[in-house]
Amino acid sequence: MLPIMPETIHVPLSGNRFTITYALNASEEDAKLMAKGICFEQTVEFPEKHLPKGDIPDHIVGQIASFEKVGEHRFEVEISYAEEVTGYELTQLLNVIFGNVSIQPNVRVQRLGLSQNLLNAFSGPRFGRSGLRELVGVQSRALTCTALKPMGLSAANLARLAGAFAEGGIDLIKDDHGLADQPFSPWKERVRRCADAVREANAKSGRHSLYMPNITGPAEVVFEQAHEAKGFGAQGILIAPGLSGFDAVRTLSEDSDFALPIMSHPSFLGSFVTSPASGISHFALFGQLMRLIGVDASIFPNYGGRFSFSKDECRDIADGTVVEMGQLQPIFPTPGGGMTLDRIPELLELYGSDVVLLVGGGMFDNGGRILENSKKFLEAIAY
Amino acid sequence: MLPIMPETIHVPLSGNRFTITYALNASEEDAKLMAKGICFEQTVEFPEKHLPKGDIPDHIVGQIASFEKVGEHRFEVEISYAEEVTGYELTQLLNVIFGNVSIQPNVRVQRLGLSQNLLNAFSGPRFGRSGLRELVGVQSRALTCTALKPMGLSAANLARLAGAFAEGGIDLIKDDHGLADQPFSPWKERVRRCADAVREANAKSGRHSLYMPNITGPAEVVFEQAHEAKGFGAQGILIAPGLSGFDAVRTLSEDSDFALPIMSHPSFLGSFVTSPASGISHFALFGQLMRLIGVDASIFPNYGGRFSFSKDECRDIADGTVVEMGQLQPIFPTPGGGMTLDRIPELLELYGSDVVLLVGGGMFDNGGRILENSKKFLEAIAY
User: Fold this and answer.
1) How close is the nearest chain B Cα to the Cα of A265, in Å?
2) How far apart are CA A39 and CA A60, in angstroms?
3) Closest to A43 (Cβ–Cβ): which among B89, B178, B368?
4) What is the pLDDT of residue B2?
5) How many angstroms separate the CA atoms of A217 and A214, rounded?
6) Does the CB of B217 have a partner CB in chain A at under 8 Å?
7) Any chain A CB within 8 A of the CB of B58?
8) Do the chains contact at A60 and B247, CB–CB below 8 Å?
9) With the C-alpha atoms ordered A373, A179, A94, A275, is the resulting torsion angle positive or negative?
10) pLDDT tens digits for B217-259?
């Protein structure tokens, strides 16, 4: 039997290419082999010797656009891919960026260099920094955020908390990301009560605090759940792309009937950034990718809290929320995780005022005096 | 103002608990602190000193069920959680298992010890090993699997390949996981043509090869796409939980109108297993979790191919596909990734005959003689 594939394949391609920069931890010789390997692994996943001639090896296979030494035993390679291999869809774009190479150690995604044409396939953040500022009516200072917790409180108790935070003037009041649809605080009851409490407090104060419930519903009802939250009066949502899927977040952000701001939670995503040699950089994951899927505020664990991100990694994330990405708006870096009010001056120094500062458990210091603590939070921010 | 939370909280709980075993890389003193930290981090995420008394600290917070030294600077802690904290939903279960601790280095999920009541919330694999054997009409030998590739071929060429593989008697013919909805091979055309080709070959041979197209559609249409594939004559699907979301896979597996076997691809999941100190074990991720979401055959990169899994890690995965998990059926470990036909005896020795062996690019050796290579594959399996 003759070989079944044609000798030459002609594929209609635009010639537009985008780039992904990978860091490779290896000797120069190995790094060069790895770079070439990525070109094949992320596209044809096929032995070079068996490829038919023509457009497949010439254009479909990734191409090394640059290769440079950036440190001892560390190289950066920029690989360009034909836009068409992504099908202009997020799932396949993620697959091209990091699908199979995620399984190869010592390869790390550093930066996305998406082409304008590819970026045009995404709407990006519906609100971004300026849109979110408009919603809460805060023009220049940093925004304040807190979380309703602990898990185990009843919906009524969580609503009392939500009302108190709104009365205290906190801008964004989100569910803790562990609040789902649990028997001790059923989702519908919680969202309805908390939204009511925040609305009532806003009516009294004239402010515009937003209540953002956690969306964790099963895949078949997640969009319905988000719309239901809006129906109950929620003014935004919290969602974890690692749990609900990156594309579910993108879908919600592009849904013009939904049209509420989206805050992302890093739950289940930590393994991507655990190792400096593998995974995805803080910059690309919590900055660029969150913007690509339409997140307006990207939560990540701040340095010096209960987690292990360094100050530099946090700065990288902030850079990724604003780096040029065509028409995609800048979004808010949202550091949290064990933050206390006394650290606010230091955080403002690092992040500037284009930041959402998330203080959760720390709002219960001082005997749980929510109004007093909220006032302190706002004073610290204003300072 | 008085503290806003009641002094004592009573929460209605069944008393049923499940366990997750984590490996901790640290000194004994640090590991004990980390274990306690996980109990709080994965549930209330709240400072212990501020918790109201009663059921929240007594039952909602995780509990250390066992703690033991398993190696130098390595400990295993089994933590039990109240079933109710999961809301009996996958997204929140994943969040409890590894949500926030994914962001803490030196913590690794080793094993899931799900309670019967919690397992009852999941249907698990619809086919499993025995169901998939019935579909392909193969009672005892290992199953054969190959992939349609390379990306860049037209739908017509891919269909020629699919027909040849079916004629050659390959049991499972899947799309390469990089085939999405690209202009050079549009999804609908490809799935229709490939399904037709496999059906025609089956009609001639009397065999039951299954064509399993890759499902990568956007979140808002992914279920529709899977049903469409079935309408076109696909007899199973390939899907990557890391790209489409774990819960999307679970939803499909529980959809009784869909009711086709599901093969999972490890794309984008590699970072969970890159470090032996962090992430999720091979056993739990590619074995237990894939079963929990209803996968029937779990693809992973075999040792000695283009990837870096060790022989022991591959054996662990195989163990995870069959370990007791209540009513959840055993599924097929499906090693692949740079496999060649000459390695089959060695693989059968490791995995036994309850395995799906995936040979992709290797089927194009020997001048691309598909029929001849398929015959060799079957002979090697039979031996």
Assistant:
1) 10
2) 9
3) B178
4) 46
5) 9
6) yes
7) no
8) no
9) positive
10) 999 999 999 999 999 999 999 999 999 999 999 999 999 999 9
